[in-house]
Write a structure and sequence with these properties.
Blueprint (H helix, E strand, L loop, with lengths): L7 H32 L6 E7 L8 E7 L9 E8 L8 E11 L13 E4 L5 E7 L5 E12 L2 E13 L2 E11 L4 E4 L2 E4 L12 H7 L5
Antiparallel strand pairs: 1-2, 2-3, 3-4, 5-6, 6-7, 7-8, 8-9, 9-10, 10-11
Length: about 220
């Protein structure tokens, strides 16, 4: 055998190793892209912000409403991003990335009555409001109340106000305490289920079912 000739089995093993390396690199790149898409917040997509002490450690924290990227837009979806400071450091650190959680107008000069908002409540919770008070006969306002429990942000409350511009008797208000399962709609008590749901796992169907609006 000529010493300059590479044995066939070594060449085959080299080809297999190279394929594995390329595959691993592609998987890593895909994973990194996915994480980046979920956690990267472009400044021009921030549409509202609130400052409060969410984890009650005496330091100011931050919560943002962020419009989804233009190529990922579906019905003007908006994400909720929450930042905390820890005991040892004063800089903010991303604690929650929950894209596509509410809908609404995402343009600063857009339609009045379609704008979402986020604000700090006196008890340290966060209120996220979305609404339609401009289009069609069916008008509504929805509030998600977020609370910090066991190192996670959960949906503690769901409030839904509805009115029909052509039928004054069709309107109602529902308050659903998601953590306790207590709900009232139009002043009447409802049977609802107590749940502990992180904001990342929340969808509005849960609140609608708790309020008896959908099955």
């Amino acid at each position: 055998m000529d010493g300059s000739t590479t044995p066939s089995y070594e060449k085959a093993n080299g080809d297999i190793t190279m394929k594995h390396l390329i595959l691993a690199a592609l998987i890593s790149l895909t994973a990194a892209t996915t994480v980046s898409a979920e956690t990267t917040v472009a400044p021009q997509r921030i549409i509202d912000a609130a400052i409060g002490d969410w984890n009650k450690d005496g330091k100011p924290d931050l919560a943002l409403l962020v419009a989804s990227p233009p190529d990922d837009q579906a019905d003007n979806t908006i994400g909720i991003y929450i930042y905390l400071r820890d005991d040892e450091h004063s800089l903010l650190k991303l604690a929650v990335a929950a894209p596509d959680k509410v809908s609404g107008d995402i343009e600063p000069g857009g339609m009045v009555g379609e704008e979402p908002s986020i604000k700090a409540l006196p008890n340290g919770s966060i209120a996220v409001v979305s609404q339609n008070d401009a289009v069609g006969r069916e008008r509504w306002e929805q509030t998600l109340t977020l609370a910090f429990r066991n190192n996670a942000f959960v949906v503690a409350g769901y409030t839904y106000n509805y009115r029909d511009t052509l039928d004054p008797n069709a309107g109602f208000t529902c308050d659903y305490n998601v953590l306790t399962g207590k709900a009232t709609k139009g002043g009447k008590d409802l049977k609802a289920e107590a749940k502990t749901i992180n904001i990342q796992d929340w969808n509005d169907d849960i609140g609608q079912k708790g309020c008896g609006i959908s099955q």
